[in-house]
Design a protein that fits this description.
- By secondary structure, the chain is of the alpha/beta class.
- It has one domain: Rossmann fold, CATH 3.40.50.
- The protein contains seven helices and ten strands.
- Helix 3 crosses helix 4 and helix 4 packs across helix 5.
């Protein structure tokens, strides 16, 4: 079952001096439960494509359906609601809320969804234990290392059990052990809960674990490979 359909997608940024054609005629489909990596050199359009899929940016032309919904037809309020209830985001720059603790950052999306306090607390503790930061539940981002902040950001994206997780360089600031641990958490949820994961990455560790690798160059898909992943041991 195709849960994401991309048809002849284009994104042009019209600057004051030059136009940048960041995504050029991309055609892709993703099935439920995929664990896919989008790779390519800097400036190839990886992050732009991820932002388009997540409704953080609007295409210049083409169609993009997520779960059967054409995101370009949604009003801003409906788009916000769709993202809230369907998509988890992991940003390279963390985007944690500085005045909230690690635990509060993780439960933030669940609070917006108006989930019960007991459910929010249980899920937050579960994820903090999974990422090895249960002892930092009351720490604010400024008191966490870059790698710890990234782990909290990934836990926040997973907290509400979204249908889709879009991760922009999720392991960029992690050491090898932390990166492997996080990838194993996401791979486990992918298998058990059928969450669709799409990564934008340069990290060979992510690429090795991906079951599908899509390569972009100059905004175009130049290869799309499905293969057996390499799952590292704990």
């Amino acid at each position: 079952m195709n849960v994401i359909e991309i048809r002849n997608l284009h994104k042009i940024y019209d600057g004051s001096e030059v136009k940048v054609h960041a995504v050029k005629g991309v055609n892709l489909t993703f099935e439920e439960g995929e664990f896919a990596a989008i790779v390519g050199p800097s400036g190839s359009g990886k992050t732009t494509l991820l932002n388009l899929i997540g409704g953080l940016d609007q295409p210049t032309s083409g169609e993009l359906l997520v779960g059967g919904t054409d995101l370009s037809t949604l009003k801003p309020s409906a788009l916000i609601d769709f993202r809230l209830n369907n998509i988890g985001f992991v940003f390279q720059s963390y985007n944690l809320i500085p005045v909230l603790t690690a635990g509060e950052n993780i439960e933030f999306i669940m609070a917006l969804q108006k989930k019960a306090r007991r459910e929010r607390d249980a899920r937050t503790l579960e994820l903090l234990e999974a990422i090895g930061l249960s002892d930092r539940i009351h720490s604010r981002p400024a008191k966490l290392s870059g790698g710890q902040q990234q782990r909290v950001a990934v836990a926040r994206a997973l907290a509400s059990r979204p249908k889709y997780v879009l991760a922009d360089e999720p392991t960029a600031n992690l050491d090898g052990k932390s990166a492997t641990s996080l990838l194993q958490i996401m791979e486990k949820l992918n298998h058990e809960e059928k969450i669709t994961f799409i990564f934008s990455t340069h990290d060979p560790r992510v690429v090795k674990m991906a079951r599908r690798v899509i390569t972009l160059e100059d905004g175009c898909v130049v290869s799309d490979e499905t293969r057996n992943p390499e799952i590292p041991e704990k």
